[in-house]
Each structure stands twice: as structure tokens, then as C-alpha cells.
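Predict structure. Chain length: 324.
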Amino acid sequence: MTMKTPLLRISPASLDTLMHSLDVRFVSLSECVVSAGYRLELKGIDVPAIHYNLTGMGQLLIGRDPPIELEPHKLIIVPPRCRFQIEVPASARHPRGTVNTVVGKIPVASADGIRRFVAGNSAPEIILICGYFHAAYGSATDLFATLAAPIVEQFDPREQLDSRLKQAMKELISQEIGSGAMSATLLKQILIALLRRSLTSINLWVERFAMLSDRQIARAFSEMAAHPGSAHSVASLAKVAGLSRSLFMARFVELVGRPPMVVLRDLRMRQAARQLETTELGVEQIARQAGYASRSSFVRAFHKAYGTDPSRHRRVTSPHSPRR
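Prediction complete.
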């Protein structure tokens, strides 16, 4: 009988680097309000959903999986493309009684500007902050893409995740300059708090993330993400991982879904796009910092990634560029 290799959790140093390099943003954020005897059904889309229960007791249902009990300050990440339901039984004595289902399609904005999905006409029994989010390295390496089962963690009120989510909602409502960046920063703080649990949680949900389940591949990927412009090669990255070249290639492709040098090009283009958008560095200098010896090869790679040349990208996106 073959023994399964025990899970080696990602090192704190690699996790810190990966969190620093992670791009996050809300796709949408709203309140979900459910009264007793009602079930709110929401569809899944191509990005994960985040739910934080502010108050009340209920259940979250995903497909035919066992119900997830909701209580205050419980955080749940639902995998991409999963339809889910938030349910409050009609009464504690008859938890399996008749429940009315409301399909949430478009949230309704109230007088305070908050977008809400509402199920039921009476006073709500449960209130959650719910949203869809994107968390990735570059355009095609999504941290949550391989998540197949929900992540459930109970937080303490003193950790103030609810305050961060409420503030993120206010930022998105205000639509002031920098509101997108501020809400993304708050979301990143929440994800960091969650991913810290991967180092100590008794629930080994860390192995559901391809990027976090293999500490050797994570070590190499974190080096790529932190320093995309360095002179990386398959051989040098395999050395960082402590693996042979062939084993590193096989495990990287299995976990990430693409060869390491393809992922590296994506990370380099992400760095270049940021510099074009936020600095006044010349294209040649940005190309060198992205690891390209010639401007022409950099321009070709950038056009392949973004569908436009670097100079035009800067004119369209950079606040440093003059507007006509």
C-alpha cells in the first residue's frame, strides 16, 4: 500500500512574498439580507465569491455538499462557477420546514447607496457582506483557479474583518479618486488574514491551492513573482526549488497549468504595464528591468500580452501622459 506524502506547508517567507506580489480587486460587493423562512440563491461566475457573516444564524448551501453553518464572523470562500444559497430556516424547531427561494439577479441600491440582495419582507435574520473578487499574478495565473471546495474559517471580532469589508463597501459606493485602489487594499488585508491561517489552521485547506500546496514550487514561483526581471531560467528556478530540472518542470506545469517561462513572461508584462501606468521611465529602461535585452523583443511580447504597444498603453492609462 502506497503511503501518501504528508503535506509540507508553504514557508512563511514564501507566503509573505506571494502575498506581496498578489493583485486583488473586487468584481462586486454587496450585502445579502435573508429573513426567516427564506433562501437567497446566487449564481457562480468565473471568479471566487467571498462571504462574511455580520450577524445572525443560518446556512450556506453549495450543490449537494453538507450545509455550512453560518454564525457571526465566519468567513467563507466559494470556488469559481459554484451556484450557492444562503438559507434561514422558518424556525429553530422546524429547520426543515418550507423555505421560499428568491433568486438574486441584480442587487437593489438603497437610500444609503449600499447594494443589497434581499430575500424576505420581514426583519432580516442574517446579514452577510458578499462579493466576487479576482486574485491573480499577471493576466493568467489565478491563485483561486484550482479551488474546488469552499474554505471556511471562523474569525474573532477583534480581528475586525467586518470593519474592513464595510470600509471597502463605502469606498466602492463613493467612487472617489482612489476608491478602487483602497477597496483592493482592504480586500488584500482580508485575504492575508485568511491565508495566514494556512500556516496554523487545523483545516488543511491550503492543499486546495495548487500554488500553496507544494512548498518547493511555491518557493520558485515566489522568486519569479518578486523579481520577474532577473535572469531566470528553468535550471536556476529548479535550483531555487531544490529539484532536478525535469522534476521541477513536471511539477510546475501540473500545479500551475503552464510552463514556468510562459508564466515568467506574464509576470514581466505585468511589471512593465504597472511601470508604464505609474512612472515616467523610458520604454527601453522598462524593457531592461523586465529582463529584455532589446526594445523590439519587449514590444512584441507586450503587444502579445495586451494587444497594444507600450507607448500607446502609456498614453491611454498613465496620469503622466498629456490628455488632449
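Summary: The mean pLDDT is 85.
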